[in-house]
Amino acid sequence: MSKNALIAILGSVILLVLVYILLPDTWSAVYASGNDFLGVEYTTFKYPMLGTIAALIDVAFRNDFSQMYLIIWGGTGLALGLARRSGGGGFAIGFYIGIYLMIFYYIILILNNIYILPITLYDEYVFIAGIIYPAVANGIFCGLIGGIGGKITKPRKKKLTPVFTEKILALFPITCPNCGAQFYSNAKYCSTCGAEMPKMTIKGAEAAAEGSTPSQ
Q1: Entry pTM
Q2: Cα gap 136→6, rounded to integer Å
Q3: Cα-Cα-Cα-Cα dihedral of 129, 135, 137, 142, to 10°?
Q4: Mean per-residue pLDDT, 3-17
Q5: Crossing angle, helix 87-111 and helix 133-151, to 10 degrees?
Q6: What are the tens digits of pLDDT across the range 39-72?
Q7: 99: how many CB neighbours lie within 10 A of its CB?
Q8: Residues 99 and 138 in one domain
């Protein structure tokens, strides 16, 4: 599993915790009343904890772009984007959060013998409008904010680890394929005969470190 996917799982948990803390009255009311559009009653769930989580996801998906929802979705995306230090990574994390919450929600429904399947035309409408659309819409919004957070931070500087240094050193000396002269620089042309020098890569260093012929 990629780093973005793992961070998105953590972000999903953080977002639900924020809903739990910042919107206590809202999710409590939704837990008690259920989701009329989907025909789901959370109080009938076998395990109350699963009903609570489903209600939290339900509330998170009811994003009306009011101040509190913007803080929850935008704040989560921005924080994770800043931590990721990558525009693309920040967007991916935010989008994954919406998708993961959709998957969690659907799994919880199935565990409680509630199956919302796009079989008939009406079922398709309910499935898309009640589950897929809110997940994708909120995921895109969270991803956009996460992408901004990743863009405004400087990328982490790559450290020259001993292993990487060994790979670099394994590239040299470079031998001219025409005259056999050896050089300790990655010159494009041989200074002795003027022939074009082979282009060395890190893959070549890895091959050299394993005792095979470096790629040229």
Answers
A1: 0.71
A2: 19
A3: 160
A4: 94
A5: 150
A6: 999 999 988 999 999 999 999 999 988 999 999 9
A7: 17
A8: yes
Is residue 215 one of the residues assigned to a domain? no
Give, for 209, the enclosing helix (H) or strand (E). helix 202-209
- pLDDT for the residue numbered 212: 42
Beta strands in the chain (DSSP E): 174-175, 182-183
Is residue 68 within 8 Å of 23, Cβ to Cβ?
yes
Domain that holds residue 145: 3-151
Is residue 157 included in any domain, yes or no? no
CA distance linking residue 135 with residue 128, whole number of Å: 10
Is residue 125 located within the same domain as residue 166? Answer: no
Same domain, 10 and 96: yes
* Residue 30 falls inside a structural domain: yes
Q: Of 109, 130, 151, which residue constitutes the final position of a domain?
A: 151
Please state the domain count of the chain: 2
Residues 199 and 99 in one domain: no
pLDDT in tens, 78-111: 999 999 988 999 999 999 999 999 999 999 999 9
SS3 content of the chain, % helix, strand, coil (to 5): 65, 5, 35
What are the residues whose beta carbons fall under 8 Å from the beta carbon of 122, sequence distance 6 or more?
Answer: none
Angstrom distance (rounded) from CA 190 to CA 195: 5
Q: Give the mean pLDDT of 123-149.
A: 94
